[in-house]
Specification:
Blueprint lengths: L1 H90 L11 H9 L12 H5 L3 E2 L2 E2 L14 E8 L2 E7 L5 E5 L7 E2 L10 E11 L5 E11 L6 E3 L2 E2 L6 E2 L5 E4 L5 E7 L2
Parallel strand pairs: 5-6
Antiparallel strand pairs: 1-2, 3-4, 3-13, 5-7, 7-8, 8-11, 9-10, 9-12, 12-13
Length: 268
């Protein structure tokens, strides 16, 4: 019995020891696997956190970059469209209405030629040099050879063969005749007379005497100022804006007035 017992205990103990060793190895292995599993889980968690952070950052940065990209692409596309439209316009494919142009205006502009220089009289110099009297522009400007007479010229005014006035016209070189009292030197009240009807202008006239010498003499002239009803010299109507020399005992009439203006010179 003792022999059997001694023989039986040996293998049992070795089995137990091997079992313990196997258990220890398995438990050690399990512990190591558990540790590595926990490390992997923590690593995955860390990787997940980093990925989440990265995704969050990318999501925050992405809208700005995308908006910039969209704006850039829109700008590039608009530039490209403008370039293409410009090319089409020059080629004649695009209409002028697409460019905000009016065909009629363009046609009118094409018909209009460039303004050529005009060397004609504009009248501005004459207007600038035009004389005024009491704030009213005069229709007549005295010529360069105007002069005060050296003889005593007079006008005798007759109505129904009666002398009603005597006018002395030797004190100045020009006498305006008309209804405008602020301008006229010889006033006419008849309705057919213009405001500035005519003018008696004294001018220097060069002539040759009996000995062949050149002599200057101041002579009176009548000038109609574009009157409506005309100026008459010895019952004949004179042309407007033309000088007519007056002689002693000449008769002037203005419009339809019945008054006679007789011109006479008085010798000293």
């Amino acid at each position: 019995r003792d022999d059997d017992s001694d023989g039986d205990t040996g293998p049992r103990r070795s089995d137990q020891n091997s079992r313990r060793r196997r258990y220890d190895k398995d438990s050690h292995k399990n512990r190591q696997e558990g540790r590595s599993g926990r490390k992997e889980q923590t690593g995955q968690r860390n990787d997940g956190d980093d990925g989440l952070r990265r995704k969050t950052k990318d999501s925050l940065d992405r809208p700005q970059s995308s908006e910039r990209g969209r704006a850039k692409t829109r700008k590039e596309s608009s530039i490209a469209e403008d370039d293409s439209d410009l090319k089409e316009y020059h080629k004649g494919k695009a209409s002028k209405e697409d460019w905000g142009l009016d065909d009629k205006k363009d046609k009118e502009g094409d018909k209009k030629e460039k303004a050529k220089p005009d060397y004609g009289k504009s009248g501005k110099l004459e207007k600038a040099n035009k004389a005024t009297k009491n704030g009213i522009a005069l229709k007549h400007s005295e010529p360069p050879n105007a002069s005060i007479p050296n003889k005593h010229w007079r006008i005798y005014v007759f109505k129904d063969e009666e002398n009603i006035a005597t006018l002395h016209i030797h004190r100045q070189s020009c006498f305006i005749i008309g209804r405008e009292r602020r301008v006229a030197d010889i006033k006419t009240d008849h309705l057919t007379c213009s405001k500035q009807h005519a003018v008696i202008q004294f001018k220097i006239k060069a002539k040759t005497d009996e000995l062949g010498n050149n002599v200057a003499e101041v002579r009176p002239y009548i000038l109609d100022l574009d009157s409506a009803n005309g100026t008459f010299l010895n019952k004949k109507r004179v042309e407007s804006r033309r000088y007519y020399e007056l002689l002693d005992k000449d008769v002037l009439n203005f419009g339809s007035s019945s008054r006679d203006y007789v011109l006479m010179v008085v010798e000293d």
